Design the sequence.
């Protein structure tokens, strides 16, 4: 148990030691930060989600009203006689506080508040937004004013849904959805979160304060604790090694997740990515050992290059995340327009990966594996004879990494079942690849493939795997 003098010395040391002062300030700031985060970040997100949900419900309601209570006469809206008689039942059914129907000029054709019928909405938002065919919405809180200046006695979502006919604006619905119950639920949830945040913040503050106190005491006893610190340093080295491994696994998991997202509509995504890594490693290792590219690969760092190439190959189709599901899942061959759209995935992927690499370069002054991944993503559909896309590069102008992955990707695609084709046999696939020597594929890479074709067969049939992937940190 520290004596009062020891405690006073420790506290004095805390305020004299710059780093300890910073830690103490952080521990005091955490509760405020967490509460501000909840109020300015979490709560608005909840309310945004509520407004989006209300917009969706309002669109459904508007469609229902349109189909049952109004008809279109050229560019005019005509009310059916049944609408006024059924409006209260409709409002009750859909939880509405109020309904209005506007002409394209902003004149109110119908309102659940009959006194408003015939008046005109001259507000800027109606003509600037709604009349342009865009939805306008906002949450109006209790005892606040709506966009039209009317005081409201409850929490509502005020939503304008444009009505169009042959792409021409002819009117709009204005719906007031009662959000009282939903908002009360959000407020209750926010209060619970705020209470939890306070408890967590206090615990964190206590932990940090204890850490600062103990650190200060350790500094004062540094000379006496030298031997003990040496042992602690050994433990820290092991901890660093463990954390380094953990970071590597985390990095590779993130890569795998991104790649799976790009291949989301394939049933065997995980197996496909594993096979691509295996094929890539087989070819790259063979080229490193004995090929015209051996010197180049050795200059790139031998195993480091192969390791990063294996990792980067996983991201070759990451650009497909920006391509529509209709194109990716089409069960037949794509037409020219859709194929041109699909081609864009190479440029999209390169742009995203290149931006990520630029951030890494600014931080560390060198390229990361993202540079390699960007080249693969951009160029893996180029062909040796220059007939590929997106830039029609030819021969060795195509990055070696992209040439390697191009063969691996084509082999796996042909050997895999797709919605538009059955899987090819290994022999059929090998024959096609050999026939494409000097046309689609680099002849040197085809030779490396032929040296490993039986391993390719085993991998494609789930009977084999390369042995070096684990050493590269790829699981």
Sequence:
């Amino acid at each position: 148990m520290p004596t009062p003098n020891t405690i006073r010395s420790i506290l004095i040391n805390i305020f004299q030691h710059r780093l300890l002062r910073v830690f103490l300030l952080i521990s005091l700031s955490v509760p405020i930060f967490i509460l501000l985060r909840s109020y300015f970040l979490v709560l608005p997100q909840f309310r945004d989600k509520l407004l989006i949900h209300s917009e969706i419900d309002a669109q459904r309601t508007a469609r229902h009203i349109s189909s049952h209570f109004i008809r279109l006469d050229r560019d005019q809206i005509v009310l059916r006689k049944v609408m006024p008689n059924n409006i209260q039942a409709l409002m009750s059914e859909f939880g509405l506080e109020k309904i209005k129907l506007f002409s394209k000029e902003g004149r109110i054709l119908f309102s659940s508040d009959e006194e408003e019928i015939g008046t005109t909405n001259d507000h800027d938002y109606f003509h600037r937004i709604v009349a342009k065919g865009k939805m306008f919405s906002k949450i109006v809180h209790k005892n606040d004013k709506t966009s039209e200046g009317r005081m409201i006695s409850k929490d509502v979502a005020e939503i304008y849904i444009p009505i169009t006919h042959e792409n021409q604006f002819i009117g709009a619905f204005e719906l007031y959805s009662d959000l009282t119950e939903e908002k009360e639920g959000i407020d209750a949830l926010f209060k619970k979160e705020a209470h939890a945040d306070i408890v967590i913040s206090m615990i964190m503050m206590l932990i940090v304060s204890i850490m600062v106190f103990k650190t200060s005491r350790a500094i004062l006893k540094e000379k006496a604790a030298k031997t003990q610190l040496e042992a602690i340093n050994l433990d820290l080295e092991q901890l660093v090694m463990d954390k380094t491994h953990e970071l590597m696994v985390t990095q590779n998991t993130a890569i795998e997740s991104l790649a799976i997202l790009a291949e989301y509509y394939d049933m065997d995504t995980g197996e496909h990515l594993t096979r691509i890594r295996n094929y890539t490693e087989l070819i790259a290792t063979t080229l490193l050992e004995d090929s015209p590219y051996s010197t180049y690969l050795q200059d790139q760092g031998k195993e480091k290059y192969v390791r990063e190439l294996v990792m980067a190959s996983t991201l070759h189709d990451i650009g497909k995340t920006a391509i529509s599901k209709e194109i990716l899942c089409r069960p037949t061959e794509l037409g020219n327009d859709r194929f041109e759209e699909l081609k864009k995935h190479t440029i999209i992927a390169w742009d995203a990966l290149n931006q990520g690499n630029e951030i890494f370069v600014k931080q560390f002054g060198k390229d990361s594996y993202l540079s390699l991944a960007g080249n693969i993503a951009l160029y893996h559909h180029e062909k040796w004879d220059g007939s590929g896309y997106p830039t029609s590069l030819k021969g060795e102008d195509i990055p070696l990494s992209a040439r390697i992955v191009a063969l691996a990707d084509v082999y796996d695609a042909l050997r895999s079942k797709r919605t538009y084709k059955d899987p090819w046999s290994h022999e059929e696939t090998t024959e096609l690849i050999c026939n494409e020597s000097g046309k689609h594929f680099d002849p040197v890479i085809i030779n490396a493939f032929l040296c490993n074709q039986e391993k390719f067969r085993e991998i494609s049939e789930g009977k084999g795997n390369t042995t070096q992937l684990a050493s590269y940190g790829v699981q």
Summary: The CA atoms of residues 383 and 440 lie 4 Å apart.
